[in-house]
Amino acid sequence: MKKVTVFITLKQGVLDPQGKAIQTSLHSLGFQEVEDARVGKYIELHVEDHENVDERVKEMCDKLLANPVIEDYRFEVEEAVRS
Amino acid sequence: MKKVTVFITLKQGVLDPQGKAIQTSLHSLGFQEVEDARVGKYIELHVEDHENVDERVKEMCDKLLANPVIEDYRFEVEEAVRS
């Protein structure tokens, strides 16, 4: 079993209203030191072992998990530690 | 300037409808090998330098970024590389 962690972030230059809202809220709570906030998705998958896990995960990202027009993605594959 | 990356995930045992929806969609696209999917948030902050950045970020998470009832969080602090 493999644990795959996918990080999906908005491409540079794409407006991030959620990030702006977080930055404004942090400022109103007194955290003036925050200059910029950007929000993305973080997906953890447990995937059965087989040889081309990386290719399959890339396909999953391209087909479903990430929107190629406005999002970038990267992923990490490691041995799953079942809790 | 520091770059802070915050990972917010649902606590073990908390139902994850978004994760379930992703798993079902991946199966319908032919990715049967996916056994489990859980979705979280990934927030990148740029924060001005000062001594207790870790404490301040912990406060930001406790007060705003994470819901302590259903979510866990962890964060990483590194030197910011401005692009």
Can you walk through the features of this model?
Two copies of one chain form a homodimer. With 83 residues, chain A is an alpha+beta fold. Chain A has one domain: Mth169, Chain: A, CATH 3.30.1280.10. Helices cover 30% and strands 39% of the residues of chain A. Chain A has two helices and three strands; from the N terminus they run βαβαβ. A three-stranded antiparallel beta sheet of chain A has the order 2-1-3. Chain A is elongated. The model of chain A has no long low-confidence stretch (mean pLDDT 94). Chains A and B meet through strand 1, helix 1, strand 2 and helix 2 of A and strand 1, helix 1, strand 2 and helix 2 of B. Chains A, B: This is Phosphoribosylformylglycinamidine synthase subunit PurS. Chains A, B: It holds the Pfam family PurS.
SSE blueprint and pairings:
The structure is a homodimer.
Chain A: E1 2-10, H1 17-28, E2 34-47, H2 53-65, E3 71-79
Antiparallel strand pairs in A: 1-2, 1-3
Shape of chain A: elongated
| CATH class category of chain A | Alpha Beta
Q: How confident is the prediction overall: mean pLDDT of chain A?
A: 94
Query: Could you state the order of secondary-structure elements of chain A as H and E?
Result: EHEHE
Oligomer: homodimer
The H-level CATH homologous superfamily of chain A, spelled out, is Phosphoribosylformylglycinamidine synthase subunit PurS
* Strand residue content of chain A: 35-45%
GO cellular component, one term (chains A, B): cytoplasm
Catalytic activity (chains A, B): N(2)-formyl-N(1)-(5-phospho-beta-D-ribosyl)glycinamide + L-glutamine + ATP + H2O = 2-formamido-N(1)-(5-O-phospho-beta-D-ribosyl)acetamidine + L-glutamate + ADP + phosphate + H(+)
Keywords (chains A, B): ATP-binding, Cytoplasm, Ligase, Nucleotide-binding, Purine biosynthesis
Pathway (chains A, B): Purine metabolism; IMP biosynthesis via de novo pathway; 5-amino-1-(5-phospho-D-ribosyl)imidazole from N(2)-formyl-N(1)-(5-phospho-D-ribosyl)glycinamide: step 1/2
